[in-house]
Structures are given as structure tokens and as C-alpha cells.
Amino acid sequence: MGHVTFVHGIGNKPERKDLLEQWRVALVDDDGVDLAAMGVTSSMVYWADVLYEAPALRGSGHESTALELEQSVDAEDDDLRWLADVPSEERAFVEGLAQKVGFATVFATGEEISDPIVPASPLEAVPLPPWLKRRLMRVFLRDVHHYLYDAGSTPRPGESFRVRRDVRLRGLDALCEGAERPGPHVVVGHSLGSVIAYDLLTDVEGAPRVDALLTVGSPLGISEVQDGLTPPWTRDDGWPSRQLGDGPWMNVYDPLDPVCGGFDRKIADSYRRGGAVRVIDIGVSNRGSWRHAIAKYLGQEQLRGCLRDVLE
Question: Which of 43, 90, 116, 309, CA to CA, is 20 to 30 A from 139?
Fold first, then answer.
């Protein structure tokens, strides 16, 4: 028995039920972890509709080809001209974050945007067309900024959101739902979803205790992201003690995943508990062009082993 609460990451996604099914299938493929056979239930903290007008096509985002990956990020969603309207400190945040994931700069003057890919960065090593890499990472920059700064979003006429506030509310509902199921209760956050998961476990009133945390392809090691966490993040006391307690926290990363940052993919030293290192960093090597894909991470035996260990 047990329950897994998944939290998805950047970019547009298919509808919630389709996305959840995709994650479960990716886990079970090739003799993997069959949650249904184990009697493990699951739910998805779904927030793509807070930023995106309509769900992505079913199956998009698997990144088996560059064309399929392109379909998961619309051209208009990677427009960075919104930076012209944010305070200077927020613009500096985005520019600093861009440096960490492989851009030399993001915002120039007026509507001019310059974002050359930094030589020798993980982003340069990604074997995708430069325009597609830029589009993907612009979406990452926007989504992270809008979450950490609780930006307003009106993805559809008549619907407005405060991004961080409303995503937190959805996450709290999902965690409380999971807490009502037979345990153990495991939270799995991918990409920006790992930041959301951490936020829920450290700074949301009423969040229930969970038994394990698994972060995947996470930007939590990037200093700009850490500076946006509340309550104020500290290296020696960054552990989510109140909601995770002594439960395990595993962090799975691919060294060529640009979302993890150039030198920030290991996070154990940044989220200590009373000065002691507790996070277990696990490096994997995903196949294909886009190493950040959740389906590829879920196919890794190391990740599957972590889930088995905490669920069995």
C-alpha cells in the first residue's frame, strides 16, 4: 500500500488525468515499478492551466523527437518581453538564473532580447537546435519567476490567478488527500515541481507530514532559486523538518540536464539538517536530446529503486 503525490514541472502539459497516466506508465515500462500492482494510489498536483491557455496534446512533452518537444512549448509562451514590466530586482533574478542554466544574458533594452548560449555550459551540450533550446529555457525562466514572485496570470478570458498562491492551494489539497490514504506517503517533484514540493513542506500552513521526498531534475541547488524560498532558506537548516522529519530525501539528477544548473545539480550540501548532510544525491544518465524529460528519469532504475525502498 501507499500513496504518491506527483508534482509536475515547467512547460505546458496534457490534461491532469492524461499526465498522471503518462507518469505511471513511464514508471512501469520495461519491468519497472507497477504502482497499481503494489496497491499504491497516486495523484498529480496539476498547475499548467494556471499559466497556459489550453492543455497540450496528449503525448506531447515525451521529447522522443525535437518536433514532439517543440509541441510542448508554444512560441508565444517563450516571449520574454514581460521582463520590461517587472522591477529591476526581479529582472536581475531572471538574468542570474539564466546564467546558471546557460544563457549569457536575457534582457537588453526596450523589447530587445539577447540570450546567447554560454560556451561549455550544459545547455550548449544539449543536442537540440539552438532556437529550440532557447525556447525551452525561456519557458523555464518565466515559469520559475512567476512562481517565486507570485506573479499574476490570466491564461484565459475571465480567469486570473496569483501563481504561487494558487499553486500552493492546489498542492495543499493534494497533500491532504494523500494523507488520508494508507501510507507511506511519498512526494515526487520534477523540475519546478520540486521547488513547489519543497515550498509546500516548509511554508504552507496545514500541510500534512509525509514519509519521503524525491526531487527529480531539480533547480533547488541554484542560488537564485534558494533566495526565493520561504521561510528564509539557510544552508545549515534547509531540511523540511516539520513535514518530513526523519524521512528520506533523494535527489535524482542528470549532469547534462540544464535545468539543474551548471554546477548546482547536487543539493545535499545546501539542505542540511542542523548542519548535517541528509539529502542523498543520485546521478543518472538519461538518453536522447533533452535530458530533463520526466519520462526518461522515471525509466531510471536508481529512481525506481528509491520508490521501491520507501513504498515496500
Answer: 43
What average pLDDT does range 198-216 have in this prediction? 97
Cα 148 to chain centroid distance, Å, stands at 12
Phi/psi of residue 103, nearest 5 degrees: -100, 145
| Domain extent at residue 295 | 2-61+161-311
Out of 111, 132, 159, pick the residue that ends a domain: 159
- Mean pLDDT for 236-263 is 93
Domain limit, last residue, from 109, 135, 159: 159
Is the same domain home to 229 and 300? yes
Give CA–CA dist 307/34, Å, rounded: 11
Burial zone of 39 (CB within 10 Å; 0-12 exposed, 13-18 middle, 19+ buried): exposed
Closest CA to 122 of 273, 284, 258: 258
Asked whether residue 54 falls in the same domain as residue 76, the answer is: no
Rounded to whole angstroms, the Cα distance separating 176 from 173 reads 5
Q: 107: which strand partners?
A: 113
Same domain, 173 and 267: yes
Instruction: State the residue for C-alpha cell 495543499.
Output: 172
Residue 113 DSSP class? B
Phi and psi dihedrals of 301, rounded to 5?
Answer: -65, -35
The verdict on 74 and 34 lying in the same domain is no
Q: pTM of the entire structure?
A: 0.94
Please check the confidence at residue 261 and state whether its pLDDT lies above 70: yes
Q: Mean pLDDT, the chain, as a whole number?
A: 90
Q: Are residues 141 and 166 in the same domain?
A: no
Number of domains, the chain: 2
Question: Looking at 98-102, 186-190, 242-246, which range is the least confident one?
Answer: 98-102
CATH of the domain at 243: 3.40.50.1820
